[in-house]
Design brief:
Blueprint: E1 7-8, H1 11-33, E2 38-44, H2 48-64, E3 67-68, E4 71-73, H3 79-91, E5 97-100, H4 110-114, H5 128-136, H6 144-155, E6 164-168, H7 175-184, E7 188-192, H8 199-203, E8 208-211, E9 229-232, E10 236-239, E11 245-248, H9 253-256, E12 262-263, H10 270-290
Parallel strand pairs: 1-12, 2-3, 2-4, 2-5, 6-7, 6-8, 8-9, 9-12
Antiparallel strand pairs: 10-11
Helix pairs in contact: 1-10, 2-10, 6-7, 6-10
The protein binds nicotinamide-adenine-dinucleotide.
Amino acid sequence: METKTAKLLDGKALASQIHQELTTKIQELQTQIARPPGLAVLMVGDNPASAAYVRNKEKACQLVGIASYGQHFPQDTTQAELEAVIHELNQDSRVDGILVQLPLPSHLDAVALLHEIHPDKDADGLHAVNLGRLVRGEPGLRSCTPFGVMRLLQEYNIPLRGKQAVVVGRSILVGKPMALMLLAADATVTIAHSHTQNLGAIAKNADILIAATGIPGMITGDMVKPGAVVVDVGINRITDSQGKSRLVGDVDFDSVAPVADYLTPVPGGVGPMTVAILLQNTVKSYQKSQE
Ligand code: NAD
C-alpha cells in the first residue's frame, strides 16, 4: 500500500510569484513617483545567520527593483548612534522601509530601537503602533513572518473560519501576531508556550498547527491530528549524525508528513514568504508616500 504524504505548501514558488507582481507594480508606480522604493536594513555585529538573512533580503530587493540603503555597524555600536541613524532614515525621502536585523548584541535595547522607526516606515511591522493596529483590526504594516504564513494558507485555499488553530510559541516576532491574524480570520485560537502542559494533546486538536519555538523537530507525528495543516516557522541549523550542517524546522518532517494533509518544507516554506512580505510592506509604504 502506498503511504499517504502531506501536500507541500510551497512558499518558495509563491514568494517568486509575489516578487514578479511587485516588479511590475514598482515599474508602474515609478512612472509617477520618479524614484525607486527604498529599504534600509540595519545590521549590528557579525552574527553569520543574520548576515545571511540580510544578504537574502538585499538580493530580493535588487530582484524586484527596490534600492537598498542598508548599513552594517560594528559590534560595539551604541544605542545613541543607532538611534541617530534611524532618525536620519526616518527623514530620508528615498527610504520607505527601515528594518533592524534581530537579534542585536546584548548591550542594545532592541524594543527601544524599533520604536524609533517611524510607524509608516516600519517594514517589519513590529512597532507598537502597527501591532496595535493588528490588535484593533485596522489596516497597517503587518509582521512579515505571520503575514507570510497567512498569505500561504490563502494561496492554498485553506479554510480558517471556525477551525481550531494552535500556535506553538508566543514571541512578539511570530507567535503573538500569528495568533492575532488567525483570530482575525475567525479561527478559534490556542497559544501554547514553554509553560504549556500536555502540549501533545493540545496540538492534536489543531486543524491548523503552527510551530514557532526554535526547537528542532519538536512537533512529531503523534502530536498531529490526521488531516491537519502544519506550518513550520522554525529555522534551526543542526549538525546531523554524519557531521553535516543543515537547516531543519521545529516540525519533525518525516513523522508528520504521513499524518498531515498539508505541510511547509524547511527550507522553502515560510522563510521565502517572510522576505516577500518585507518587500511588499516596503512597496506599500512607497505607494503611501505619494498620497
Ligand atoms: P523565540 O525564542 O523568541 O520564541 C520561542 C517561543 O517558543 C517562546 O514563546 C516559547 O514560550 C516557546 N517555547 C519554547 N519552548 C517550548 C516548548 N517546549 N513547548 C512549547 N513552546 C515552547 O523564537 P521566535 O523568534 O519566535 O522564533 C521561533 C523559530 O522561528 C526559530 O526557529 C526562528 O529561527 C524561526 N523564525 C523563522 C522565521 C522565518 O522567516 N521562517 C522568522 C522568524 C523566526
